[in-house]
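Just wondering, does anyone understand these tokens?
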Amino acid sequence: MLREFSIIALLTALGTAYSLISGLAPLPWAEPKLQAGEIRLADAQVLDVIWVDARSEAEYAAGHAPDALFYDQGDPAGSIADILERWLQAPRVIVIYCADAGCGTSRQIAEELRRDLPDAEIYSLKGGWSAWSE
């Protein structure tokens, strides 16, 4: 019985080591590729989404996602009303983006929208607007 237990323990240890070394399993201390509530650009582009641009008005005017709504941080109630109006016309996934991966504005706005619109599927874009130029 001790021999069988030892063999099982050894095989388990070898399997775990192989998975960690070969990359089949993520390292326990490694940062996940996607945070909760994030979506990759490639995944969002295959969906019919409502794009919300959380950058400055000048950046929005310089270029934005097709048919994106501008989120005016000076008037969040009006911006949220615009988003809700579009979502109520045709409920679909909402994706918010800001300038780049370091910008936390899109995650913050996504959290606010989830409270205001709990039935909607809402994400922030991983990499932000800079993901479009890659």
